[in-house]
Automatic annotation (TrEMBL):
Coiled coil: none annotated. Gene3D superfamilies: Magnesium chelatase subunit I, C-Terminal domain, P-loop containing nucleotide triphosphate hydrolases. Residues 53-183 form the ATPase AAA-3 domain. GO terms for molecular function: ATP binding; ATP hydrolysis activity. This is ATPase AAA. It holds the Pfam family AAA_lid_2. Belongs to the MoxR family. Residues 259-326 form the ChlI/MoxR AAA lid domain. It comes from Neptunitalea chrysea. The keyword ATP-binding applies. The keyword ATP-binding applies.
């Protein structure tokens, strides 16, 4: 039995290595335009391969829009950008029925949600009804306009951005809706030498052209291949221990966290943590998941899924601090 497992792993490994060959090519193409920000680019790929969506938080000017636009060009996918504003309507996102006088009939005008890569810029600027229209499309992968239902293009990735600086005139996403995002990634300023390169490139005004290096069919094949990445039962238990520690910290020798957690991660958290770990292993061109893969993505998957109490806020303890304590306490298989 042990022997069979070993053979299986090596076969899977070979297949994944072959299927993931385009990752390096895609990264190189994106690096032509995006300086640094490797972390953000990797997270975008995890979202794409895991059929999830990503919420990016960072101050303006960190190449968030540029990153998803570059990815869409490198993947030969369609790209659309929705600038969320307080006067936006759900029809501006999904589309609407338009009355045609000549035909004496209604025709359907599809909205910007009909694209492979959708950038929802400053999602917290639009009211709840617009946010929920977008989130419904993200969850169901389909849109209903009038009495017709349209299936969205595949692959379909929504990258929503939030500006953490301004609170005025914003509508924070409710916890239950934030849970729809596979990852919430917080990005930081570039390093000094990276920013020097950014200045030079901008002053020259000579940006390299991004060429399509991967087809959407290859991405769809890769999404299927990710499912085949081997995850041992011990890794599954490790993931479940981390998730359950957010719900019942006292059972994991973490009594001090009980008064700091309002609610723990939902089952979506455990599904997405397992899926993101598989995608991370795939990006690293490996056919099996190791504990380091789980640890690499755990903050992005759980950051927005743990509710903290007023007590935690008063002590300046964030959900990331809680995840750190849990990950340091849970035994690694």
């Amino acid at each position: 039995m042990e022997q069979m497992n070993t053979v299986d792993i090596s076969t899977i490994n070979e297949k994944i290595e072959k299927e993931s060959a385009f990752i390096d090519l895609l990264m190189m193409e994106m690096n032509k335009v995006i300086v640094g920000q490797k972390y953000m680019v990797e997270r975008l790929l995890i979202g794409l391969l895991g059929r999830g969506h990503i919420l990016l938080e960072g101050v303006p000017g960190l190449a968030k829009t540029l990153a998803i636009n570059t990815l869409s060009k490198a993947v030969q996918g369609s790209f659309s950008r929705i600038q969320f504003t307080p006067d936006l309507l759900p029809a501006d996102v999904v589309g609407t029925l338009i009355y045609n006088i000549k035909e004496n009939d209604f025709s359907i005008k599809k909205g910007p949600i009909f694209a492979n890569f959708v950038l929802a810029d400053e999602i917290n600027r639009a009211p709840a009804k617009v946010q929920s229209a977008l989130l419904e499309a993200m969850q169901e992968k389909q849109v209903t306009i009038g009495d017709e239902t349209f299936v969205l293009d595949k692959p379909f990735l929504v990258m929503a951005t939030q500006n953490p600086v301004e609170q005025e005139g914003t509508y924070p996403l409710p916890e239950a809706q934030v849970d729809r995002f596979m990852l919430k990634t917080v990005i930081d300023y570039p390093k000094l030498d990276e920013e020097q390169l950014i200045i030079r490139a901008n002053l020259k005004g000579s940006f390299e052209t991004v060429n399509p290096v991967v087809s959407t069919e290859q991405i769809l094949r890769a999404q299927e291949a990710v499912k085949e990445v081997y995850m041992d039962e011990k890794i599954e238990r490790y993931i479940l221990d981390i998730i359950f520690a957010t719900r019942y910290p006292e059972k994991y020798n973490l009594e001090s966290l009980k008064p700091l957690i309002n609610f723990g991660a939902s089952p979506r958290g455990s599904i997405n943590l397992a899926s993101a770990a598989k995608c991370y292993a795939f990006i690293k061109r490996r056919g099996y998941v190791v504990p380091e893969d789980v640890r690499a993505v755990v903050h992005d998957v759980l950051r927005h899924r743990i509710g903290i109490t007023y007590e935690a806020e008063a002590e300046n303890i964030t959900s990331v601090d809680i995840v750190n304590k849990i990950v340091n306490e849970i035994e690694v298989p």
